Amino acid sequence: MVLAKPGTVKAPTKFLASLYILTKEEGGRHSGFGENYRPQIYVRTADVTVVLKFPEAVEDHSMQVMPGDNVEMECELVHPTPLEAGQRFSIREGGKTVGTGLVTRILE
């Protein structure tokens, strides 16, 4: 929930984010993932499912994101959620944090 003056906060569904995927030693994933990976992001006090895709500028959409990678991805939320550029969030899978992210640009 967000308490704000009406019309002052937007709830986008698509944004560009800079992500860091935790390594196995850091408590993250043991294996990589590809496009259309559907984890949850924990933003403020909400867990929201997100679909991760490579930006259109990336030519090879079949590549894998491996633990320890820093990558920029397009994120599409299944439910509109209030976000702002510069806001941080955690990527969660099965109740544990597997990565961190920073909203770099709101798309829709």
Could you give a short description of this structure?
This is WGS project CCBQ000000000 data, contig 00047. The chain has 108 residues and is mainly β.
Give a structural overview.
It is a single chain. This protein is an all-beta fold. It has a single domain (16-106), classed as Translation factors (Elongation Factor Tu (Ef-tu), domain 3), CATH 2.40.30. Helices cover 0% and strands 42% of the residues. It is built from no helices and six strands. It has strands at residues 14-21, 40-43, 46-53, 70-77, 88-93, 96-106. A six-stranded antiparallel beta barrel has the order 1-4-3-2-5-6. Strand 2 (40-43) and strand 3 (46-53) form a beta hairpin. It is globular. This is WGS project CCBQ000000000 data, contig 00047. Keywords: Elongation factor, GTP-binding, Mitochondrion, Nucleotide-binding, Protein biosynthesis. It comes from Kluyveromyces dobzhanskii CBS 2104. Residues 9-106 form the Translation elongation factor EFTu/EF1A C-terminal domain. One of its GO terms (cellular component) is mitochondrion.
